[in-house]
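Q: Hi! Curious about what NAD(P)-dependent oxidoreductase looks like structurally. Here's the sequence.
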Amino acid sequence: MNILITGATGFIGKNLIARLKDVHNIHILIRPSSHYNSLQIGHVFTFEDNVEKLTDYLKNNQISGIIHLASLYIAEHKSDQIKDLVLSNVYLGTALLEACKMAQTKWFLNTGTIWQNYQAADLSDDYNPVNLYAASKQAFMDMAKYYVETSSLRFCTLKLCDTYGGNDTRRKVIALFHYISENHIHLNMSPGEQKLDLLHISDVVNGFIQLAEMLNDDEEVATEYVLTSGKQISLKDLAHLYEIENKTKLDITWGGRSYRMREVMKPYKGHVLKKWKPMISIEEGLRLFE
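A: Let's find out. The predicted structure is below.
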């Protein structure tokens, strides 16, 4: 397949490309300010807000489908960040969809978040965004509805829980534990009773590959799926497990800060991708973490 990937320089993008590039022809879409040389990808399209040029690129390179990973994550936004959230999480994807429609691209695999379903009943589709980031992800899915209804594009969203793995530079919780352990730093945290659903990057990549193949092979798919570990653990218990698996002690004051507004105390459980299941337990994943 000829696959175009956005968000290629991110944590998930790098790991996905590493798995795909020896099997498929991988193209990446970047912004002018992106640094991508470490990816060693020869097919690069720089998007400068010209949808016609993007359309031509999709046509000329016979792109089968797009895996859309690019996004801007802000847990608690400030007013001057609204524009960037909309440009990154709504505008870019919509420009891609417009190009897909004109180029008659076959499929589009979108990335969502379980934070779009705050306090939703398990297996429901109840929309309730945790924050503006989650709202922007839903807004893009609403934009996509138009393109699905007016073209032959196959569109599916894969919603993610918390992800982790080696060489993760994001300020995610396990990477944070690793940082404070290595640098002997004290950290104030919430009371730590919130539950987490954590999925190792290798399982995440497997999910994306499986769904991309289903879309390309004309298999029946739902409009969205969720990747989940199937297990939940409290933040405090996760810290204790990290200490055990890594033979270290974390300097954390529990209750040293308050829960965030709209803290997710229990992660949403949606419809899991068929035939996919997680292979790496949290215990093994913590041992693999570097």
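A: A fun detail: The CA atoms of residues 37 and 179 lie 26 Å apart.
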